[in-house]
Amino acid sequence: MERGGKGARKWAVELHDAAHSSSSKDLPPDPLGFSRSMTDPEETVSGKQKKENEASWKQHKAWEAAQAPVKNLLMMGFMMWMAGSTVHLFSIGITFSALWQPVSALQSIGKVFEPFQDANTSLLLPKVAFTALNLAAMGLGLWKLNTLGLLPTHASDWLSNLAPPQSVEFSGGGSSILL
Amino acid sequence: MASPRLRASLCQLFVVVACLSSTCLALYEDQVGVRDWHQQYIGRVKHAVFQTQGTGRKRVVVATEQNAIASLNLRTGDIYWRHVLGETDNIDALEISMGKYVLTLSKGNTVRAWHLPDGALIWETRIQAFQGFNLGLIKLPVDIDGDKVNDLFVYSGSILTAISGADGATLWRVDAAGSKNIFIEKVVLAPEEGKAYGLGFFGIMGVALVEIDLKTGDLSDLKSAELSSMLSTEHLHVTSDYAVALQSDAESLVVALINSHKELIVVETPVSSILTNPGTSLKLLSTNLEGVISLSSDDQTVILKVDPTTGKLSLVERLTGAVAVSDSLSVLDDKYATAIVEFSEEGSAQNVFNLRVKGNDFSDEVQKETVKLPSHRGFIQKAFLNAYVRTDRSHGFRALVVGEDDSLSLLQQGEVVWTREDGLASIVDASPAELPLEKDGVSVAEVEHDLAEWLKGHIMKMKATLFLATPDELAAVQRARLNQADKTKHTRDHNGFRKLLVVLTKAGKISALHTGDGHVVWSLLVPSLRASYGNPRFSPLKIFQWQVPHQHALDENPVVLILAQADPGYDVKGALSWIDVHKGTELQSVKLSYSVTQVVTTPVTDSSEQRLHLLIDNRKRAHLFPATEESLALFLKYKENAYFYEVDKADQKMHGYGLLDLVDPSTGNIKEGYVFESRKLWSIVFPAETESITTVVTRKSDEVTHTQTKVLSNRDILFKYLNKNLVFVATVAPKDKSQVGAVSPEEKTLVVYLVDTVTGRILHRVSHPNMQGPVHAVLSENWVVYHYFNLRQHRYEMSVLEIYDQSRLPDKGVIQLMLGQHNSSVPISSYSPVNLEVKQQSYFFTFTVKTMTVTSTAKGITAKQLLLGTVNDQVLALDKRLFDPRRTLTPTPAEQEEGILPLTDSIPISPQSYLTHSYQVEGLRGLLTIPARLESTSLVFAYGLDLFYTHTAPSKIYDSLTEDFSYALLLVTIVVLFLSIIVTYVLSERRELAEKWK
């Protein structure tokens, strides 16, 4: 067992098992490779309690998953602060990743909460929290985009390429061209 | 997400990076001649002296009407050296003395000696002179001051001066008017040693002869004779035996004989006895003939022999058609030769001329040749004869001839040895034109050959980049760059660099130059502008782009319109001529019975892309061209909004006119075409007793503006005031602007106005006290930059005005703008109220400016450069960013990001900002900027006596790779990277497999 902890081997068979003698003699010997110590202790708990435990555990995990973007948000905020407010490759990259991460996270929201899907657990609140946090992250990204001046929020963004207007009247002439 | 702002920011970023990385425009030495070319000319030759004796190089020294003197290689016509004198420094006489000095007389009062081999000025001397009299320079066969250099003799009015040939010191001076009361018109050397004869006027009706002692300047032996009428002073033909002159009324020819008794006998012969039809332009052709005189009228020329004892004139030869007679050339002691060049027959492409060289007295013909010259050279107008000794010791003759188009050609043995296109020294107007489109059907073999060549060239280039090339290969690379075959193709290219420059010269010749290397694609001496018998000569004024095919008429050739003014005194006042730019032929011409004072190019084109033009005559009537029903129908729709204006510099007024109805042909005495009557709508009267108009500038009619807004760093928006009918007028006060120091600086003022020419409204007025002209200005988009002199600071200044329209500012939210609810694309009328904001700033400037213009690009997105023709005849390119009224001493980071430079009191000029680099465009008069199809690039053509052409990219070349970009290096890098990827992939696969088997 000790050797298995090193990770070089994935499984091990103890052919000479010391625990073998302690097991009940009525029962046939355990199959090779079966170890009683590896069985989940929870399985031994009674069914109802087990189920309750599982539900609360799943709920707990779901909440953990829902709060995961907070870390991301803090991280992003720090990166954005580092990137400064001028347009260059780094700041654009950071901003666009900040915009893209929440979008991709929201797209895979089903997958994130799939392991915790259960008839008994309510995932609505964690999902809402998850969505809200991601939206906040996206808002941060948009805010950054705006501070970089890349959002069309000013009149200049809509009029800067406006073609010159036509003149109604036309006039020509000047001083006499005669020599 | 590609919002305009993003694009703008990215563009800005690139621009900023580009500006930071290199703010200079300079070229490397090996880039000279890749894009640019420079041609040197001298102008129309009026004096020529040959230097063919001796061991040195054979050369001819010429003086031109453009005040240039030059020494030309007689074998090739190349310039050894050239000097261009000042604008008023007319060269009156030219001589070569002792095989080593070139002597010139300018304005009758300045004599200069130049060193023949290298053109260095040896000495210059000023003498007293009377303006407006016949003057001349004679090199004397004697040495007066004994310094072994033959001396000179100058007559100018009645003042005779002898000048030392060695240092230009005055040896003696005599005023013949003071001492003898005669006005000397011409001096010739006498047969006797040390004597000369001076012939002149005595009183009003008399001719007088004096003998001049060249050693002392004593005048003796005054003889005079009375005449029946006054003599024309223009053409006086004097030899040692007689003098011939025309009477001022051209009635008779007067011969004054100088006989052995030193008496003056006057014989008058009526012209009508010699010429049946004397015409109006009677003149003596050459006044330096031996034994004969030549008299020409409109249609014929006669050679007359003068009998030295009786003064009788006898006809030697009668020549019809265009004739040029050279001066007599002394070949041997007593032998003279004279060349006659006469027009023989007209060919389709070439004209045939007879070159005849006559001996003494025109009795024998020494040489006769026929020479063919291209028909665009026109008639030969001047001939200079030179003799050379053949191997069999006989004399051969060569002639330098000046064509009707001002070109200079050397004729020898019936061949044209070389020709200089010196008409291009006097370009009147220039206009760009597109080349024809490339036709399909390029053969594959050619492409393959090209590919191999291309690869080879690029490999050599790569070697040069990596410093592996040998000097020979480097030279080959440089040659290949200079002689790119596609540079001179006669088809359009993708970047729009290959174009035609259509130039109109003073001689009435139109030529198309290729922008690739400046060679002449075709030339045409416009037939309808040439003088002919009974018709006036036309002086070309302007070129207009008549037809610029670009959309539905692509298969048509572009056409330009030439406007010419007739010589006064004829019924015909002007002429129009239409020239096909691709073929170089005249399509059509019209003689006008009215003087055209202005031409208005309207924005309307007809179905075949011909632009509608209005010709305004001196009665302020507008003549519509093309005079077709279609154009009339188009114009009538447009007429209500068409105006024209006039700047009257004589009266210090501006007038605006609107068009009225079509004049009824029956009542208005109109023979043809469509003529509109006009009505004066407004006048601006500048205070005539104080202010005088110096400069009027409008925007270029073909200017393209990309956008009407300007976005500031804080994302605010300014609307440019883009009124196409804006004109900039500068006036100076007080009126007498000519005399410097006549008025104190406090009294001087410069006032500039911005005037709307539709309504006559003065939109803005700035007064600059203590400033004076001359004013040079450029008006482009919504700004004006002008150049003037500051009398207080004794420096030149430049000012910029930027005009913004406050009334167009949007008062709506972003959402409404998103939905397109704004009034910014509504057509603007000059009659609508405006609320202008004019920002202004001034800077000191170092140079005097001759001419000013601004770059133009295809879409108007690229930043602009101001191009200034400096007094040194160079072209200086300055960024518009330097002339920005929003410059401050300490710009904020946001403003710096926008590209605003810190304010300085003067405009910095770096030596790299000269577009002409080491060249000078001698006598610079005009600058033409042409947009290339590549947005970043503007083509620049500078013309004066010289021609210069180059490219400029005001915001750097951001839309194409530089021409020295190594494609081969890129290709090799890609291939190497690709191979290394494959190799490393294979290696890592193997390694992994080996690991797994361990």
Could you name the key traits of this structure?
heterodimer, A: 179 residues, mainly alpha, 3% strand, elongated, B: 998 residues, mainly beta, Thrombin, subunit H, six-stranded antiparallel beta sheet, five-stranded antiparallel beta sheet, 11% helix, 44% strand, globular, TMEM85/Emc4 (chain A)
Layout of helices and strands, plus pairs?
The complex is a heterodimer of chains A (179) and B (998).
Chain A: H1 47-83, H2 89-107, H3 109-113, H4 124-147, H5 155-159, E1 170-175
Helix pairs in contact in A: 1-2, 1-4, 2-4
Chain B: H1 4-21, E1 37-39, E2 45-51, E3 59-64, E4 68-73, E5 79-84, E6 91-97, E7 101-106, E8 110-115, E9 121-126, E10 135-139, E11 152-156, E12 159-163, E13 170-175, H2 176-179, E14 182-189, E15 195-202, E16 206-213, E17 219-226, E18 231-238, E19 242-247, E20 252-258, E21 264-270, E22 283-284, E23 292-296, E24 300-306, E25 313-320, E26 323-325, E27 329-330, E28 336-346, E29 350-358, E30 365-374, E31 380-389, E32 395-403, E33 408-412, E34 415-420, E35 427-434, H3 444-465, H4 471-482, E36 499-505, E37 509-514, E38 520-525, E39 538-547, E40 559-566, E41 574-580, E42 585-592, E43 596-605, E44 611-617, E45 622-625, H5 629-638, E46 642-648, E47 653-662, E48 674-685, E49 692-698, E50 709-711, E51 717-719, E52 726-733, E53 749-756, E54 762-769, E55 771-780, E56 783-790, E57 795-805, H6 814-818, E58 836-845, E59 849-854, E60 865-870, E61 875-879, H7 893-898, E62 926-931, E63 938-943, E64 947-952, H8 967-997
Antiparallel strand pairs in B: 1-64, 2-3, 3-4, 4-5, 6-7, 7-8, 8-9, 10-11, 11-12, 12-13, 14-15, 15-16, 16-17, 18-19, 19-20, 20-21, 22-23, 23-24, 24-25, 26-28, 27-28, 28-29, 29-30, 31-32, 32-33, 33-34, 35-36, 36-37, 37-38, 39-40, 40-41, 41-42, 43-44, 44-45, 45-48, 46-47, 47-48, 49-52, 50-51, 52-53, ...
Helix pairs in contact in B: 3-4
Domain ER membrane protein complex subunit 1 C-terminal (chain B): 780-997
Family (chain B): Belongs to the EMC1 family.
Pfam family, one (chain B): Beta-prop_EMC1_N
